Amino acid sequence: MSVMMVRKKVMRKWEKLPGKNSFCCDGRIMMARQKGIFYLTLILILGTCSLFFAFECRYLAAHLSPAIPVFAVVLFLFALATLLRTSFSDPGVIPRALPDEAAFIEMEIEAANGNVPQGQRPPPRIKNVQINNQIVKLKYCYTCKIFRPPRASHCSICDNCVERFDHHCPWVGNCVGKRNYRYFYLFILSLSLLTIYIFTFNIVYISLNSVKVGFLNTLKETPGTVLEVFICFFTLWSVVGLTGFHTFLVSMNQTTNEDIKGSWTGKNRIQNPYSHGNFVKNCCEVLCGPVQPSVLDRRGIVQDQNGLAPLENSTPPPGAVTTSPLISRELPKEPVTPQDVRPEALEMSTSAPKKSEGSRGKEK
Ligand SMILES: [Zn+2]
Ligand SMILES: [Zn+2]
């Protein structure tokens, strides 16, 4: 009798990821679950640009220059591409500790802190690391069960720790972090230019028409143009202001999260250890440095211990553990630099002898 080996539907790792994300296209697209405002962003951009292309562009191409719609299309496509790249990608989510790893870290923390008498608060779970001669505190995440790498933070909306966390942006429907910050910056920069462009040429269109039929008649005849001017006017202030703010952050190699917390200013008086002290170098690092591959391996197949995808008529050997790590441990092997302490490097640091940490148990 021939043995029919019929494969079950394979389960991919994104189906088992614990954060509050939603996935499309079998894990290729990753976003936050709350996407209402992202759809509003899309409607505003697509609606305003469609009106501009349908009415003013045709008129201006015929009366002024055919280059006007060409440049508008290029800006529109660039803004849309960077928006979708920001929204649909992994912002730099740090995998949660597996149960074994979490138990090991807990054991280490307890060993370092000693027995805390009943009724007393245990010391805060903090580790200090030195980066460019500055002491930086690594906080323990009680949800992800890891010591967060420097600059990482836990997003309460997506329920993930994100590397070089900037902020959660409901307008793009995703966290903005290490892996998508440059696309976010390019998006707001191109959207600013597009808004200024459409606003300016709407004013030109209204002026040209006003000469012919009068200002009030132009407004009556072109309600679409009035709506575009209205949308662009309000978008201008917010988006151009936001782009200016992020240009400042990029030039200082700072994140929004660090700026809000005042990590490198005010009472802390700690110099930003990530800044090169040079505007050009900071911009190059933030906008042109290499993008790390995602460590989530979302499309990886959940395998059994033998490395095989599940088969319908196969029975696991007695005592076999069928749970496998959700996260690929084949992380990119890169040198650990002060600028970029990888989570795996920190995991290694947790296995260092703790004798000396006992005496540092009173760290605040
Ligand atoms: Zn976390
Ligand atoms: Zn988020």
TrEMBL record:
Matches recorded under PROSITE patterns: DHHC
An example Gene Ontology molecular-function term: protein-cysteine S-palmitoyltransferase activity
Membrane topology: Multi-pass membrane protein
Region (Disordered): 307-364
UniProt KW Chaperone keyword: no
Domain remarks in the Swiss-Prot or TrEMBL record: The DHHC domain is required for palmitoyltransferase activity.
GO-annotated cellular components: endoplasmic reticulum membrane; Golgi membrane
Similarity comment: family membership: Belongs to the DHHC palmitoyltransferase family. ERF2/ZDHHC9 subfamily.
Reactions listed under catalytic activity: L-cysteinyl-[protein] + hexadecanoyl-CoA = S-hexadecanoyl-L-cysteinyl-[protein] + CoA
InterPro entries, sorted: Palmitoyltrfase_DHHC (IPR001594), PFA4/ZDH16/20/ERF2-like (IPR039859)
Residues passing through the membrane, by range: 37-55, 67-84, 183-206, 226-250
UniProt-listed Enzyme Commission number(s): 2.3.1.225
Keyword terms, alphabetized: Acyltransferase, Endoplasmic reticulum, Golgi apparatus, Lipoprotein, Membrane, Palmitate, Transferase, Transmembrane, Transmembrane helix
Keyword Transmembrane carried by entry: yes
Name under which the protein is recorded: Palmitoyltransferase
Stored Pfam families: DHHC (PF01529)
